[in-house]
Design goal:
The protein is elongated and about 90 Å long. Helix content is 35%, strand content 21%. β6 and β7 form a beta hairpin. With 359 residues, it is of the alpha+beta class. It folds into 3 domains: 56 residues; 99 residues, no CATH class; 143 residues, no CATH class.
Length: 359
């Protein structure tokens, strides 16, 4: 909160604050002040003076938060969840979107705006030093709400499940039309130690780590892919349990995504080139028309404008890092008898990219 001079309060100003605290008013309104000071001019001047001195904080016209009279100078800031609740008043609302992604631990990024979804208004406001965005939603979307107590105030927030739904469908929060969020903003949410399953191998609960990346939407229709395993009866060769299926990217899109990342990733990772080598060795046709179309679209959406046809377009520094990562990051995690030659990967894909269809 900005520095204010809290000293030299007048008799009327002290009376207004102490009376509000005595009546346990979390906010003061114009009718409340006029009840104390029937003279409208006096009431208006008292409110204006207290606002100027930082002893009350304006929520909106005719509605103010009281700074406790016992608060030390410049050392009190209202809780942003409480402020959001008081700002909404009787309007149905919940605090959600990016504010809750951080609250529930879906991302470590600190929100710069408190998003307040409600049934009445769209508005942007700075209260104290905090930015708030009121986002109007349809009543049928008002669900998955949880009440919590914050400083003796009931505050409505999106519960964990609703927050995850909001994250998937609107990763940053609404108000995109108002330009509150950058179009190319990127978030990754990791739900760790949340999803458990009974392991048939260890006879203990296993943990599934789910990573949801919302950088780009799928371009191709997702497909159901069989998840294979190597758990077989050593005598009969029969599978110990049946294969399952998961919804995944199409093969063309998954490989296009892998190739795009190998070219455009800011911090290079040797695993990308290891994967691409084995994909090429499996006989995948990198020159098929549908694949090239997906690949070029992904690079374009990424904003990449370089020339990748020689060594993936990587700088000398990145090439040096990759060669070091072969020994430090890759060899310790692949089979002991397996060999990997990074230069062969470059040679292979230099040949692939020499096809004029990649121009």
């Amino acid at each position: 909160m900005s520095a204010k001079n809290y000293t030299n309060l007048s008799k009327d100003e002290i009376y207004l604050i102490s009376r509000a605290e005595f009546e346990k008013q979390k906010i003061v309104t114009t009718p409340f002040v006029q009840k104390l000071f029937p003279n409208k001019n006096k009431a208006s001047k008292t409110v204006a003076s207290l606002t100027r001195k930082g002893r009350i904080i304006r929520l909106e016209k005719g509605k103010y938060i009281i700074v406790p009279i016992k608060a030390p100078n410049q050392q009190w800031t209202p809780n942003e969840f409480v402020v959001a609740a008081l700002w909404m008043g009787d309007t149905s609302y919940y605090i959600g979107y990016f504010t809750m992604y951080n609250y529930w631990g879906f991302t470590e990024q600190i929100p710069q705006t408190v998003f307040v979804l409600n049934l009445k208004k769209n508005a942007q406001k700075t209260i104290g030093d905090v930015k708030y965005a009121a986002v109007k939603i349809d009543e049928k979307k008002y669900f998955g709400i949880q009440k919590i107590k914050v400083e003796d105030t009931d505050v409505c927030i999106s519960d964990k499940e609703r927050t995850l739904v909001d994250f998937v469908y609107n990763p940053i929060g609404s108000f995109n039309n108002a330009g509150l969020v950058e179009k190319d903003y990127y978030l990754t949410v990791i739900l760790n130690n949340k999803v458990k399953y009974p392991s048939l191998v260890t006879a203990k609960d296993g943990i599934i780590k789910i990573e949801i990346s919302l950088r780009q939407p799928p371009l191709d229709k997702p497909v159901h892919t069989v998840v294979k395993h190597f758990y077989q009866d050593p005598f009969t060769g029969e599978d110990l349990f049946p294969y399952g299926k998961v919804l995944s990217l199409s093969l063309n899109e998954a490989i296009a995504e892998k190739l795009k990342v190998a070219i455009s990733r800011k911090d290079v990772a040797i695993r990308d080139y290891y994967d691409l080598w084995h994909i090429a060795e499996s006989g995948f046709d990198f020159t098929n028309e549908k694949f090239i179309k997906l690949f070029k679209r992904k690079l374009s959406d990424e904003g990449y404008t370089g020339d990748y046809r020689k060594d993936f377009g990587l700088s000398a520094d990145k090439l040096s890092i990759l060669h070091r990562q072969v020994d430090t990051d890759l060899m310790p995690v692949i089979r002991a008898d397996e060999k990997f030659d990074l230069q062969k990967v470059f040679d292979r894909f230099n040949q692939v990219f020499s096809d004029r269809r990649f121009d």
